[in-house]
Structure formats: structure tokens, C-alpha cells
Amino acid sequence: MSIADNWYVPSRLTPEMNRLLETTDTPFGRAVAPLEPTRQTFLVHLLWSDSSQPIPGALFEHRAVLYTKDHRPFSEVDEVYQREAIDR
After folding, report:
1. How much is the pTM?
2. 83 pLDDT exceeds 90?
3. What are the CB-based long-range contacts (under 8 Å, 24+) for 44-47?
């Protein structure tokens, strides 16, 4: 439903999390789930709002900082949500 880029600080993840991210196709959110992450969104950008025009491939973008349960930042995420999010 989205195309996501995750920039993270490897030293703030466990060795196992880093191994999963480096050697498998495990989704980022699943790999870091033991950190009990929360997120603070700092950007919401609408990429389409004119309903008289065809729905484009990309609808909106979210950017956020992810924090551990101890409120230590460890990642920034940029997610662009795709048309498939509403085609279901």
C-alpha cells in the first residue's frame, strides 16, 4: 500500500534486527517490533486532491520519526501511499 524508505541508526537496533534487515526481506516494522516503536509524524503531503482528474499512482506522503519505547529516536521513515490503498 505504500513505498517506504527507512533511514535508521544501526547501533540503536539489536544485532538480530540488523541481521534481518541486511539479509532477509523482513519488513522494517516487523524487524523492529521488539522495540515497541511509536512514531511522530512531521509531514503529511497530499499528492492528489482534484477528484475531477484520474487517480494517480501516488496519493499522499507521510514522514515520521520512529522512537523506541524509551523515546529514543532510531529511524526516519518516508512513506508514499499508493492508489492500491483505496482500490481494495
Report:
1. 0.84
2. no
3. 47/80
